[in-house]
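Q: Can I see a sequence and its folded structure?
A: Here is a first one.
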Amino acid sequence: MTALVRIRDLHKTYRRGPETVDVLRGIDLDIAQGDFVALMGPSGSGKTTLLNLIGGLDSPTAGSIEIAGQHIEKMRSGELAHWRSQNVGFVFQFYNLMPTLTAQKNVELPLLLTPLNAAQRRRNAEIALQLVGLADRARHRPNELSGGQQQRVAIARAIVSDPTLLICDEPTGDLDRASAEEVLGLLQQLNREHGKTIVMVTHDPKAAEYATHTLHLDKGVLVEQAA
């Protein structure tokens, strides 16, 4: 399969007072179009840093990140923000839903940056909510939904713009096992049936079983790759 993500000699260094901390140390990685990758490793191994770099939320100290033929490490902040809005959907551990908005209005939020009119935004949000099995909860606010339902709304919001890539940071970390399996099954469905490329950070080996590949980081180095 064609590589959607190509990473070469990727480094990320932070300054903490007088100290320099090397978080990522020379990562080389290809992620194929249509892959579902689980990224695992101990705390502090660089998982979230790598995820943020792939999603364009941060910039590398050195190295290259090529996604769908575009070198995002060369983009300026405004250009990168536009690229993210067009190409990446984000799912976080704590949902990040607006508490005063209904599920439908939360899902519509990314579409406010597009030329779509109100009716088109509403229709696209309805389709996304139907895809995640929550069409009947469109008018409910987050506090009227379970944790698993809130995360499914967050996934609907992530896919409503039909992004190239889904970035998921511990998407089941705040859920009970039954809700976690429901969310993971949905991500697997989006991967298998809709061709979404997914990169997911998780600490849970059971969650990683839903992925097509597992990557292991330790001290900023890719130490193992298993199918």
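Q: Show me another, different protein.
A: A second, unrelated one:
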Amino acid sequence: MLLPLPTPAEMMNWDRVTISSIGIPGATLMESASRESITALLAEFGSVEGQDIICFAGSGNNGGDGFAMARALIDLGANVTVYHTRPKKQYRGETRSNLLWAQKLDVPLIHLANVDLNTLPQPDIIIDALLGTGFDGQLHEDYLELVRTMNRLGERAFVFSVDIPSGLNGLTGTPQPEAVVADVTATFEAAKLGLIMPEAETYTGILHICPIGIPLKVQNDHPASHNLITGAIMDTLPPQTPDMHKNSSGHVLVVGAAPGMTGAAHLAAMSAFRSGAGLVTAACPEGLADSIKADTPEIMTLIMGSGNEWNEEMVNPLLKALTTYDAVVVGPGIGRSSHTQEFLKAFIPQCSIPLVLDADGLFALANYPELLNALPEQTVLTPHPGEMARILKTDIRSIQSDRLGTAKAFTAISEATLVLKGAGTIVTNPDMTCHSPFSEPNLAVGGSGDILAGMIGTLLGRALSPMHAACLGVFWHGLAGHALREDFPKRGNMASDIINMLPKVVTS
């Protein structure tokens, strides 16, 4: 259901504990890494017999993996030359051992200080073993030149990066300021956090996660702080039973709509149905009821006074009615009038059932920051970057440039579960952080967020925890967006297409 996504520091700790506490030699891990890398290379490229291969080996463990790979590639009939960044005598530990073994086996080893990079021959394959996930900061000029050389030669060669493309930040997935553009990346034991970031895909190419022998006990005793949501989470959908009925499938209440924005509440209600709710009711002022239903008799209504405006007088009747429902979605299209905002300010902290706060409900949260400390325990917030910027009193650029930092900052001020929407949606609470594997352009359409809110509302109403409901809803939503690529390869789908796709992808 969740795959660990260690940060570079956490991965280095796994290595350290495995070697120092368990006693598995570093050389054993390095040999496993090189053999798994060869397997990945052969799987994607095919036979290397007779192929000209250049390996760029750095001074750390990444370079050691490169030296070890060179030995194996020679035995497979390839013509391998290793260009190393330091004089041989400066290499240490397992990396030095692998250099010396390669030397004894007559692998050509050339110190880059003696090479004009512009005269390098064009290879068939490039092995990028220059910098590992421990790299941080900006590339020094000499390494930047090497990265550019690999990318130049890589235009006519197959590029294979060991652990991570050199120059890519293992935490954020961004180039510093440039990175190797690989066809394949073999990373070890677990994908490092930066490798699954949307920005990293341009550089990683096909990603292979290769086991190298880090014991599961080490991973469990030192858990990663981030996790990747996988398809296995779909197996945790509440099961169907022969005796189930509408009242056992969850009753979702949608509190939303304002003049001209009733479609948002309608979409949230319809997505609640399509994700399995037995009953869905829309709470709204009387004048908006027919528009929310939009000729959909399945959507029931809870009339909250006459006219078409929300006000504080509706708070107590709505609170009393909550015992009828299993979860409530607050905010889709509800508007930003002063009366509506006062209604939300009074209602939100008193909500007694699982709550999804979306859209203009989040606008109220930004207007009344004291609500952050008064959110009910089972609350899920679903902001897009603009809404998140408003809540944290910053700008969208700051949010998007540091989405991980944004998520962490929020957990420091609220116990609620946060769904920070966007490419690679982040789901977090003070205890854990999970990442969606999806970056789907087909979801970038008006109403998509209302649909996600309705889905999470349904899952909360089926007694899933806020974190579980949010992760499952985010993955399911992404899965539907991915499936829409087939019928809408250049986009063009509407939000209603996302809703109708939800039941179809459950069994795919």
